Automatic annotation (TrEMBL):
Its EC number is 3.1.21.10. Mg(2+) 2 binds at residue 67. One of its GO terms (cellular component) is cytoplasm. Its main location: cytoplasm. The gene is ruvC. InterPro entries: RNaseH-like_sf, RNaseH_sf, X-over_junc_endoDNase_Mg_BS, X-over_junc_endoDNase_RuvC. PANTHER family: CROSSOVER JUNCTION ENDODEOXYRIBONUCLEASE RUVC. It catalyses: Endonucleolytic cleavage at a junction such as a reciprocal single-stranded crossover between two homologous DNA duplexes (Holliday junction). This is Crossover junction endodeoxyribonuclease RuvC. Pfam families: RuvC. It is found in: Cytoplasm. One of its GO terms (molecular function) is magnesium ion binding. It comes from Candidatus Doudnabacteria bacterium RIFCSPLOWO2_01_FULL_44_21. Homodimer which binds Holliday junction (HJ) DNA. The HJ becomes 2-fold symmetrical on binding to RuvC with unstacked arms; it has a different conformation from HJ DNA in complex with RuvA. In the full resolvosome a probable DNA-RuvA(4)-RuvB(12)-RuvC(2) complex forms which resolves the HJ.
Length: 157
C-alpha cells in the first residue's frame, strides 16, 4: 500500500509518500510544492495541481491523506489553505485515489499516542518510527509525513 500525505498551503504544500509492506512502513519520498509569492492566486493553485499530478504519476499511490479543515484565527490564511486543500482533493478525485481525511488530533495520536502532543513531539516520533537521521525540513514536510502515517494506520493492508 502506498499513501500520499499532504499538508496543504498556498506558498508551500508538503507531501510525503509512505509505503507499507507486511514487514514495515518506509518513507519513499517527501518534499514541498512551492509557489511564488506575489504570483496571481490562480497560477499558484495551478502550480500545486500540476506538481501534485506529477507526484501521483511518479509514485502511484493508492490513497491520499489530508487533514480535515479547521478554523484558524486568520480568515485570509484559512481561505488560502482551503483553496489549496480543494485543489488537492479535486486532483485526488481526478486520479481516482481513495481520499482519507484525518483530524489534527488523529495525526497526533497516530504519531505519539497522545492527542495533545506538541509539534516537536510529533516530529521526534516520526523520526523514530521511520528511522530517519533527522527531522525533515521545512515543517510542512514532516507534517505531511505525520499525516501520511495517520492515514496508513486507517487503511487495511
Amino acid at each position: 500500500m502506498r499513501i500520499l500525505g499532504i499538508d496543504p498551503g498556498i506558498g508551500r504544500t508538503g507531501y510525503a509518500i509512505l509505503e507499507q509492506t507486511k514487514q514495515k512502513i518506509t518513507l519513499l519520498a517527501c518534499g514541498c510544492i512551492t509557489t511564488k509569492t506575489g504570483e496571481a492566486e490562480p497560477a499558484r493553485l495551478l502550480e500545486i495541481k500540476t506538481d501534485l499530478m506529477a507526484i501521483i504519476k511518479k509514485y502511484k499511490p493508492e490513497a491520499i491523506c489530508i487533514e480535515s479543515l479547521f478554523f484558524a484565527a486568520n480568515a485570509k490564511t484559512a481561505m488560502m489553505v482551503g483553496q489549496a486543500r480543494g485543489v488537492v482533493v479535486v486532483t485526488a478525485a481526478e486520479s481516482k485515489l481513495k481520499i482519507i481525511e484525518v483530524t489534527p488530533l488523529q495525526v497526533k495520536i497516530a504519531a505519539t499516542g497522545y492527542g495533545k502532543a506538541d509539534k516537536r513531539q510529533v516530529q521526534t516520533m516520526i523520526v523514530k518510527l521511520l528511522k530517519l537521521k533527522k527531522i525533515p525540513k521545512p515543517d510542512d514536510v514532516v507534517d505531511a509525513i505525520a499525516i501520511a502515517w495517520a492515514g496508513i494506520g486507517r487503511t487495511k493492508y
